[in-house]
Every structure is written in structure tokens, then in C-alpha cells.
Design goal:
Elements: H1 2-20, E1 30-31, E2 46-47, H2 54-59, H3 66-83
Parallel strand pairs: 1-2
Length: 84
């Protein structure tokens, strides 16, 4: 009886160690992870290449549509309004 208890205890500890050492998968959240970008997303864990920089827009290096430009202007207006 004591041997069964010892074997069960060792088996339980062994299985517990194996299970607890398994690497857990991290959930990836796509978005802009560059803190200097205009559309930085603090919850993003995977950079999807969507970062927009003010310098690139000013230089005409960013190929964006009118709808995106309007969204950026609204975003900037909200940032300016909320800081005052």
C-alpha cells in the first residue's frame, strides 16, 4: 500500500512538472508597434507594417488614399483637442 502511494506521488509530481513546463502560445495582435508612429497601438504584439509616420506623409513618401488622410486628420484633431 505504501509503495502505491509513493509511486502515485512521484508520478503526480512528474506529470505536474511536465505540464507546467510546456510553453504556452502567445496570442498575436497585429498592428503598429513603433511608438514613434502616428498610429501606434500599445496592445499590438505583432508589427504588421501598417505604421504611418508624419515625416513620410509630409515628404509624400506614403501612398495613402484620401479616406486614410481624412482619418489621420481627425485623429490628429482629437489629439490636439484633448491635450488642451
Amino acid at each position: 500500500m505504501k509503495n502505491i502511494f509513493k509511486i502515485s506521488t512521484v508520478l503526480f509530481i512528474g506529470v505536474s512538472l511536465v505540464v507546467s513546463s510546456c510553453k504556452k502560445e502567445e496570442m498575436l495582435i497585429d498592428g503598429c508597434t513603433d511608438i514613434t508612429a502616428m498610429n501606434y497601438q500599445d496592445l499590438a504584439t505583432n508589427n504588421d507594417g501598417s505604421c504611418v509616420f508624419a515625416y513620410d506623409i509630409a515628404q509624400g513618401l506614403w501612398n495613402i488614399s484620401l479616406n486614410v488622410m481624412i482619418l489621420l486628420l481627425v485623429f490628429l484633431w482629437q489629439e490636439i483637442s484633448s491635450s488642451t
